[in-house]
Amino acid sequence: MKTILLQVGKTVNKHFTAGINDYAERIGHYMPFDIVTIPELRNTKNLTEEQQKVAEGELILKQLQPSDNVVLLDEHGHEYRSVELARWLEQKQQTARRLVFVIGGPYGFSPAVYQRANEQISLSRLTFSHQMVRLVFTEQLYRACTIIKGEPYHHE
């Protein structure tokens, strides 16, 4: 199974970027993993939040294949403990060819992206910047990989 993190806009904080790259490299030892970045929209001053979500949504949808299992990282999604996320991922590895996790822009997702999604996952009840979510997510995906393999990174 190929796993992809699809994100809107590049990560600007160099500390986050270093951490994300570190975890992405680690994840690559367990499964094929790529991070795909959709460029941020330009000239958004004249767009409403809804118009921006729709425009970003069109760019997100262009990146998806019909058979993709699409999981939105969304504050209203299902919350998992790390061990539960690992079991969920293990099950997906048996059924999905491409598992695409999507982190939207600062205003979230358009209705069309919600419609296309197979699932939604929340990383926390807390609100994180969409930049920080990238680091938290890659760490949790790495953690799930180590749990599946029975490695000592995670402690109960």
Topology:
Layout: E1 2-8, H1 14-27, E2 33-38, H2 49-62, E3 69-79, H3 82-95, E4 98-103, H4 111-116, E5 119-122, H5 130-148
Parallel strand pairs: 1-2, 1-4, 3-4, 3-5
Helix pairs in contact: 1-5, 3-5
Describe this structure in words.
This protein is an alpha/beta fold. 43% of the residues lie in helices and 22% in strands. It is built from 5 helices and 5 strands; from the N terminus they run βαβαβαβαβα. It has helices at residues 14-27, 49-62, 82-95, 111-116, 130-148, and strands at 2-8, 33-38, 69-79, 98-103, 119-122. It has a 5-stranded parallel beta sheet with strand order 2-1-4-3-5. Helix 3 (82-95) links the parallel strand 3 (69-79) and strand 4. Helix 1 runs parallel beside helix 5 and helix 3 (82-95) crosses helix 5. The longest helix has 19 residues, at 130-148. It starts with a strand and ends in an 8-residue tail after the last helix. The mean pLDDT is 95.
Defining traits:
156 residues, alpha/beta, five-stranded parallel beta sheet, 5 helices, 5 strands, 43% helix, globular
Across the major sheet, the strand order is 2-1-4-3-5
Tally of extended strands? Answer: 5
> What profile does the largest beta sheet have?
5 strands, parallel
Rounded to an integer, what's the Rg over CA atoms?
A: 15 Å
Termini, distance in Å? 27 Å
Helix proportion range? 40-55%
Gross morphology is globular
Low-confidence stretches: none
The amount of beta strand, in percent, is: 15-25%
Number of helices: 5
Mean of pLDDT: 95
Structural class category? alpha/beta
Element order, helices and strands? EHEHEHEHEH
